[in-house]
Every structure is written in C-alpha cells, then in structure tokens.
C-alpha cells in the first residue's frame, strides 16, 4: 500500500519532464510513473495544473549567528525555528548551515552546539578536518579576506593562503570540498583605508570596495592552489562576471570547481543601494553591475554556475538598515523563503530556463556538491519524498503578508509569476493551502558524504 500519491502534475526528474504520478511509502519515494487509478492509497494530493519539483536544497545559511557588523551589543540572526518556517512555505526542505571556528576553538566545539541548535587558526585545527568529514560534515569553508574594515573591533575571519593550502590538502585527501568566500584581502582592506581617508564612507560605495577585481584575483589564486593540492572548490556567493569567467576556465581544464550565486545578485545591482531600503539587498561581496548580472544568468542557464543560494542571515528590518556607511552595513540576506519562487519567476518565466535546469540549480546540484544526493535533491525511487508543487498560474505582486519570517522581505513589491503552494517533507505535507502543517520536530540532521566523481572533475 502506498501512503501518498501525488497525482496529475507535471513532474520534473533527471530523465525528463512528464505527466507522471509519484507514489510515496513511508518517508521515501516508492515509484514514479503512470499509476492510473490506483486505489490502495492512504491519501492523494491533486497536482493538476501544478509543476512538481524536488524539495529545494538551500546550500548557504547562517542561522542564530552573531552579527559581527554591529559589535557594540551581542546581536544574533534569527534562528532555525523562525527561518525554516519561511523555507517550508517557500519550498525549501533542506538547508546547510554554517558554524564559525574562531581562534582557540576546535571543530568539535563549534559543530556540536550547532547540531544541538538545529580568523587565523592554530595549525592543530587542520588535523581535525578528517574526523569532521568522516562524521558527515564534508564541506569546509574559508574566507580569503576579512570583509570588514581594518580598524573594526571584530575577530578576523580570513585565513592566509598557507593555511588554506593546509586545509585543502586535508580536504582533498579525505573526501571533502572546500567552500570559499573569494575576495582579495589586500584589495578590500586598502579600499577601506582609501575611502575612509577620502571621506567617501556612504554605504552606496560598497561595490567600489568589494569590487570585481577583488573577486577576480581571489578566485584565480584559489583555483591555482586547488590545482596544486587536488582539492575540489565551491565558490560561495559568486557575484561578478570575473568570478564566473575564472570558474569556467578552470572547469574547461577539468578541475572540479563550482560556483554558487545568490538570487539577490541576479535581480539587484549596486544602483539599488541608493534606494530607500537599498541595504536590504546587501551581502558580502557587494552587489555589482548589469554586466555581472548577465554573466550570472548565462552561467545559470548554461553550466557555469551550479547553484542558487541565499547567504541567509535573517534579521529585523531595523537591524538590517541600522548601518549606513561602508564600515557598518549589515551583510547577509533574508531570502530563503523567496528563493524557489524568485528563481522560477526570473529564471523559468523570465529567461527561458528549462524545468530540469531549475531543479538542478535549486536542489539537485547543491545536494550533489554537498553530499546529500541521491537522498535529497531528486525525484526518484528511493529518495526522500521531499516535493514541492509550484503553481505556474500565480500572478501577483508580493506583499509583506506573503512572507513568514521577520518583519519585512526584500522581495516586497516584486512581481511573481509562479509560486510554491504545497511542500512535502519526507512524505508529510507540511505546507498546503497557505497553512503550515509541519513543526520544528519534523527536522532531521542528515550526515553527508560526497560522491568521488564530484571531487574529481566538473560533475554538475
């Protein structure tokens, strides 16, 4: 007996898109095909007129994290209880969160509290990477630059390239992937000093400090180091044409190098900083120009950009807009709830993205790159029954009432063309008819292991 059948939808699978039914038994997909008038079913979800895609995999969140841009008081982003509610409404069923390893801390010290909740490092920290990978945490992130100004009273986050090399050697040897925030430290820090000396501290100048040259230099240096160590690299929040080009060249040479972008980068430019709520759209690296947007879309439509993330860093509107200068604007985005709907609107409807490619950039590729595939990110027998029904007939201008996290959304006023309406997590309908039916106890920690093919060559 099947517990659930999703019937009558246009189903998106790696093998193609078709008018198939999906049979669910327990938490897993049991079958995909023409199930006809099968009667021995616990429940039927009518998907007529809807597009059925894999539950979204959000590769980049920072939930319940200290906000370093406002060091005068202990402030934190919203936690998983608040933010995953929005993800559920928006069709994201899995997210990968980040935990910071500050100087003096061990990997276990930061991983264990982070799991319970759901800088230059001494050399000993790198000896702990193999154990972390073995325990199911195979993506290790490094910063190639401090993103805030040199006089800021915040702990440094950058690793020098000697230590990045040490980390890459361990990651390459033990089946991990190196996630990289790629900006050039010297360029960014000199720009902060120069703009302070010139009195050009307006926040609208952020793109001139975190500029495209910085991304170009850092990406190419990181790629060279990865080539020498044999490491696979996942560049988070790729923002510029220069980054897209560097990744494309590395992939053409056979290196396992991958780019993530953010839907904020594809929809807003640095000109938006000058609008009344322009800093709502900011994260580090900064927004860039129209030519960078075009390159990002070309990468998403082709194969040069593998995933769409958010760099989710959810705060209140007051906190997000508190900073006004290049030295204190709060980074990070509030966008996980809107991610699937905006990529469908702007990608599928606006740019002609195929439905299969939509599934890849919103779910499948992130699952593959971060070690969740095939349990997550795909509609196939044996995979978790994480499914989203998108209604392509929806046409509406988004308002605050359409969102379920914080007291604002950067996407208020955006014209949506298609939107998620039903979300199923491991066979349980958790959002339907505008109502949240799931709860925080539905969440599970998923240990991850990356397919060696992903680490050996460009695989997605």
Keywords:
460 residues, five-stranded parallel beta sheet, alpha/beta, 18 strands, globular, seven-stranded mixed beta sheet
Structural notes for this entry:
The chain is of the alpha/beta class. It contains 14 helices and 18 strands. The chain has a 7-stranded mixed sheet, with helices on one face. Strands 10-11-12-13-14 form a 5-stranded parallel sheet. Strands 5-4-1-6 form a 4-stranded mixed sheet, with no helix packed on it. Helix 4 links the parallel strand 10 and strand 11. Helix 4 packs across helix 7, helix 7 packs parallel to helix 8 and helix 8 packs parallel to helix 10. The longest helix is centred in the middle third of the chain and has 18 residues. It is globular, with a radius of gyration of 21 Å. The two termini are 36 Å apart. About 2% of the residues have low confidence.
């Amino acid at each position: 007996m099947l517990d659930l059948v999703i019937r009558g939808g246009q189903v998106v699978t790696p093998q193609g898109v078709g008018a198939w039914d999906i049979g669910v038994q327990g938490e897993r997909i049991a079958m995909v095909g023409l199930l006809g008038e099968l009667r021995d079913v616990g429940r039927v979800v009518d998907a007529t007129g809807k597009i059925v895609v894999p539950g979204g995999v959000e590769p980049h969140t920072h939930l319940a994290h200290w906000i370093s841009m406002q060091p005068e008081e202990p402030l934190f982003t919203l936690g998983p209880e608040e933010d995953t509610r929005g993800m559920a409404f928006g069709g994201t069923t899995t997210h990968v969160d980040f935990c910071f390893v500050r100087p003096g801390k061990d990997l276990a010290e930061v991983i264990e509290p982070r799991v319970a909740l759901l800088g230059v490092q001494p050399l000993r920290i790198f000896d702990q990477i193999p154990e972390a990978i073995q325990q199911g945490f195979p993506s290790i992130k490094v910063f190639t630059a401090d993103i805030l100004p040199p006089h800021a009273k915040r702990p440094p986050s950058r690793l020098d390239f000697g230590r990045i090399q040490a980390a890459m050697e361990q990651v390459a040897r033990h089946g991990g992937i190196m996630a990289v925030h790629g900006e050039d430290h010297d360029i960014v820090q000199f720009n902060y000093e120069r703009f302070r000396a010139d009195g050009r501290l307006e926040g609208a100048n952020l793109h001139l400090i975190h500029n495209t040259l910085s991304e170009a230099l850092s990406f190419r240096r990181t790629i060279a180091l990865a080539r020498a160590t044999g490491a696979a690299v996942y560049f988070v929040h790729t923002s510029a044409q220069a980054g897209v080009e560097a990744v494309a060249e590395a992939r053409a040479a056979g290196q396992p190098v991958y780019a993530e972008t953010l839907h904020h980068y594809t929809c807003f430019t640095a000109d938006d900083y000058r609008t009344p709520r322009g800093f709502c759209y900011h994260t580090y690296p900064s927004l860039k120009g129209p030519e960078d947007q075009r390159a990002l879309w070309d990468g998403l439509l082709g194969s040069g950009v593998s995933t769409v993330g958010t760099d989710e860093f959810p705060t209140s509107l007051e906190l997000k807009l508190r900073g006004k200068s290049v030295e204190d604007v709060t980074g990070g985005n509030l966008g996980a709830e809107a991610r699937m709907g905006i990529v469908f609107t702007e990608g599928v409807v606006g740019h002609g993205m195929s439905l299969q490619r939509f599934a890849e950039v919103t779910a499948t590729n992130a699952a593959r790159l971060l070690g969740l595939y095939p349990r997550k990110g795909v509609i196939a027998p044996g995979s978790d029954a994480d499914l989203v029904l998108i209604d392509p007939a929806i046409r509406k201008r988004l308002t605050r009432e359409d969102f379920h996290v914080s007291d604002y959304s950067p996407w208020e006023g955006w014209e949506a063309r298609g939107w998620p309406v039903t979300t199923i997590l491991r066979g349980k309908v958790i959002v339907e008819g505008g109502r949240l039916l799931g709860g925080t106890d539905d969440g599970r920690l998923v240990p991850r292991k990356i397919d060696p093919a992903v680490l050996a060559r460009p695989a997605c």
